[in-house]
Amino acid sequence: MVMDVISMLGLLAGLIVLIIMAYNGWGMISTSLVAALIVIVTNRMDLWEALSVHFAGFMKDYAGNYFLLFFLGALLGTLMSATGAAKSIACKIVDLIGPSRGLLAVMIITAILSYAGINTFVIVFTIWPISVVLFKEGNIPKRLFIVAMFAGCGTFSMCGLPGTPAIQNIMPTETFGTTAYAAALNGLIVSAIIFVLCVIWLEWNRKML
């Protein structure tokens, strides 16, 4: 019973360490390795077998199975950034919504770019210069930029909208034998709910600051 509790706490500690290290900018390999070591020790697993067989094997399969997806996503993001297409999309959305609705504009722009398969890092560098102008005109605190951005590219556009090319939507298709458009109606309903809740929360924070 005690060991079961320790094992569960080890899993939780590994997850916490993973989040903290990733938040502080550590690389994927070192972050996952440290988290794995915590889980291995607290679960009394054989160190060499756990690292050389299970951990290394999983990393090899993960990188191999999704290499093409990662490569094409990075290539698309680079092309959209280099050609100015991402910036053109962002400017067009601003023209349609209006510069006074900065938070909503950022959220919609990042959602569209994310749904198109563009990398988050490309989205940040694309939308930030535009956001600075929007936020200044709308008297919106810059600290809300990161919140508005992830409300668009890290929520419904990542795993809710049917057909999104994000790995969170593509990977389960192999396990469940479905397509990227599975449960399309449910996805649209949930995405709409998330969108409305994000807009309400962002506007509430804007008025509070």
Supply the key terms.
209 residues; mainly alpha; 11 helices
How are the SSEs placed, and which strands pair?
Elements: H1 2-23, H2 28-42, H3 47-65, H4 67-83, H5 85-97, H6 102-115, H7 120-137, H8 145-153, H9 156-159, H10 167-176, H11 184-208
Helix pairs in contact: 1-2, 2-3, 5-6, 5-7, 6-7, 6-8
Descriptive overview:
- The protein is mainly alpha-helical and 209 residues long.
- The protein folds into two domains: 2-65, no CATH class; 68-208, no CATH class.
- The protein is 79% helix and 0% strand.
- The protein is built from eleven helices and no strands.
- It has helices at residues 2-23, 28-42, 47-65, 67-83, 85-97, 102-115, 120-137, 145-153, 156-159, 167-176, 184-208.
- The radius of gyration is 20 Å and the shape is globular.
- The mean pLDDT is 78.
Distance, first to last CA: 48 Å
Oligomer: single chain
Compute the number of structural domains.
2
Radius of gyration, rounded?
20 Å
pLDDT averaged over residues: 78
Low-confidence blocks of residues:
none
Question: What proportion of the residues form beta strands (DSSP E)?
Answer: under 5%
The computed structural class is mainly alpha
Question: What is the helix/strand order?
Answer: HHHHHHHHHHH
Number of strands: 0
Helical fraction equals over 70%
What general form does the structure show?
A: globular
Alpha plus pi helix count:
11
Largest sheet: none
